[in-house]
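pls read this protein:
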Amino acid sequence: MNWPIWVIIGFAVAGILVGWLQAKVKGIIGEKKVSVVLATLPDSDYIILNDVMLPTEKGSTQIDHIVVSLYGIFVIETKNYKGWITGSPYAEQWTKNMYGKKYKFYNPIRQNYGHIKNLSTILGLSEEKFISIVAFSANSTIKVKSRDYVVHILQVKKVIKSYKEPVFTQDEIKQLADRIKTINEASSDLRVGHVKRIKEAQNIRKNNKEVQRICPKCGGKIVYKRGKYGKFLGCTNYPNCRYTKKMK
């Protein structure tokens, strides 16, 4: 059956929206799991801040969780991914491998370091006062060696509780948390444009990879191919990766 072009476009748009919604829901579930773990920390020593939006020089940044404590400020990035997680602490991208299907994503250690630098500037504190934690789903197998904490969600509390040397007073952590809350609450306008800026940045990275003949979906090579409707770019990892782009 030959479908009208508008039907084909409709299916394509629907597929993109479904994929985006699935990723969004997974992220929210992962963040909720971490929130539940953090809620068991004693209020006397720890102040929990979830889903914080802060301004940056380039617009805004969203931080999944911040724990302001007597023992330092813990900055937590959540990745609710399944499968094998591989990568280097210094690489731009890491890989999620699920039953042979590979997916590239931005190095969360780098991502969290950007959060820490921003918080350091906003709060006027040295970066030594911050501790980075990257938390993955319990269904993942972490194959990353790093000095930073890259752990499963249920290990987050253990990491936080391992810090026992006070670096702040009770008054100081309240003041720091209140300052973050104030900036976060004033950032409602930033949230409107935050997703748009992320998508724009993703499109730029995707276009740059295509120019370098790197598959934006799996990191493999893309080459010219010829099909029923003419030339197109396709990934050499087909059929595991089905990335294609029609040539004009």
Summary: Helices lie at 5-38, 108-123, 156-161, 170-185, 188-211.
